[in-house]
Every structure is written in C-alpha cells, then in structure tokens.
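User:
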Amino acid sequence: MAATTDAALAFIAAAAIAWLLVPYAERLAFRVGAIDYPKERSLHDKPMPRLSGLAILVAVEAAGWIWLPGDGQSRAILIGGLAIAAVGVLDDIYDLPALPKLIGQIAASLIPVLAGVRVENLTLPFLGGFELHGWGYPLTVLGIVAVVNVINFLDGVDGLAAGVCVIAAVTLATIALSLERNEAGVLAALTAGAALGFLRHGFPPASSFMGDTGSNLLGYLLATASVQGALKTNAVIALAFPLIVLAVPILDTGFVVAKRLKYRQPIYQADSWHFHHRMANKGFSQRRTVAYLYAWTIVMSMLALALRFVPYSDNHGHFDALWTAVMLVLIVAALAYSVYLVYVLEILKLRRGRINPETGEFEALELDVEPPSPKPPAGSGKGH
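Assistant: Predicted structure:
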C-alpha cells in the first residue's frame, strides 16, 4: 500500500512540475535556437520550440530523488536520465549526426546497467529459465537503446509519443506494483506523470515539441522500468509485458526500418513512412491520428494487463478452461484491431497472383510495403 501511495504521489508531482515548466522551456528554446523549422517531410507548418523535454527531465529528477529509494540502482537510473537528456539537448540545438547520438545513448545506458539495472536471466515458454551471465550487460544496453529510438522514431506528430508513453508507463507501473517491484512501479508512475504534464502543452495543436530531449528520456525510463519491473522476475511471460505494451512504437519502427532497408537507405535517415505520415496522407487530422494510435496502445496495454491479472493458469502448466477462453478472446480482439489498423494505414498491400507466361506456373501472392505520397499535408512533429 505504501508503494502504491508513493507511486501516486510521484505521478501527481511529476505531472504538475512538467505542466508548470513547459512554458519556460519554450522560452529557453527560442533563446538558444532549438527551433524545429518546417521541412519537406515535416507535419508542422510553423517554427516550433523543441526543448520542452527539459520540463520532463526536471519533473522526473525532482520526483525521482524524493520518492525513489536512495540505493545505487535508483541513483544510477536518475544520473543516466540526466546523461541521455543531455544528448537530446545537444541534438535539439545542433542536430547531431547519427553516430554521436548513438554513442551518447550507449554511454548513458551503461550508467544504470553497470550499477546492476540489467537482465541477468530469462524464463522462456517451453525452454525454461537460463542465466545470461556476461551477456546481460550488452543485451540490456541494446534493449535500452532500442526503446529510446523506437520512442524517438514515434515522435512525429503533436502529442503522439508523449501520450503513448503515458499509457505504456501507467500499464508498466500497474504490473510492476502487482509483482512487488515497487521501485520500478514508482519509476514508471513518475514517468507517466511527467509525460502527461508535457502533454497538456503538446497535445494538438501543440505549443512546443519535447524534442529528442524528451523522447530520449522517456524511452530510457520506460526501458529501465521494464528491466527493474517485469524482466527481473522469473515469470514465464515477463518478456511479453514490455513487448506488448510497446507494440505500437516497435511496429512503427520495424516497418520503417524494413522500408529503408528495402530501398537501400540508411536506417537513421528521416523519411515520411511512419504510421502518422501514412494517416496524414489519408487525410486524417492530427487528433484523429493520435486517437487511433492511442486506442491501439490502450488495446495492447489491456492485453498485457489481462495476461498479468486474468487467472487462466496456476503457473504450473494447469489451465482453467473458462479463463483461458477469456484470454483467447482478448488475444484475438487485440490481433483483430491490429490487423484492422494495418489495413486502414495500408502498411501492407497484397499483390495479386498471376501466371508466369514463360513457365506457365502461378506465382505466389506477395505482401508489399507501399510507400506513401511524397509530401504529407501540414501538421506537426519532428520524428525520424
């Protein structure tokens, strides 16, 4: 009960601090030149300040030093947060090349990993548990950097990344507290609060962007909360929790990277192939875009919560028929909604099969990733 109270207080404090500080971060952005000017692939049509992630940083640090325990791992997470936000600040002001950004993200991620915030063993269905030994260090760093970048990639329309982070962090906090991973629960709760406080200013039409300062930090916090919360337990489905909760940004990044590889473009090169660009090309407003993607995130988060709380199994291989049926219905519903959105976004298109005139054989149907139109309508967002 005390941990839940701490999580609630940290959430409220972080939300209030971020909400109050965003206007000051906007002024600072104009002073130092951290401005996002409209470009060909942009979804905004006027210069926007992009340092509001500093408000999120102050909110996280203030709430974290008060409500997180004063142990070495919590301190390392907060110090690593400062480091990864600093990388974002430099990028927001100077537009860093991809390699320095990646090196900075790795360096910041090493801070908590070296302090013990790492996955040391995994339990997989049908395979059981096994120790990672020294592999835990690079795999955890890789995981943190990956989440940082999937959130960064998602940040391309007003309020999208921040709102998805609010939903994901609240879900992770609920799961962590239920597993008695109290530090992770508080960390996820204050992450949700800080993102929500920014969202008051970042929801369309936004007054500013959180920039890489904010997206780097939120991705980092979600990753470390996942490690401390679900991934440090011996639950068989522990790995599934963060993957399901973060399914939307992971899928967005996966499709974009696949597209860039297909057309032999650098995976770090910005383009207009993200989910939000596709929705803009179909005439969706910013609010309709974020509503669809928020709803998708909520559906996946509800599935993760169901996996945690629906008593379909006794964890010893015995399944309750009724609750297992309920879980199957929920899984099918989540998959159906996901397929529907993939269809709406026209992410995959089915090429018709045809007869090869030379061989007389019928060629198999092929899924193709269809590119959007080159110039989306004006809106907002940075994205990558």
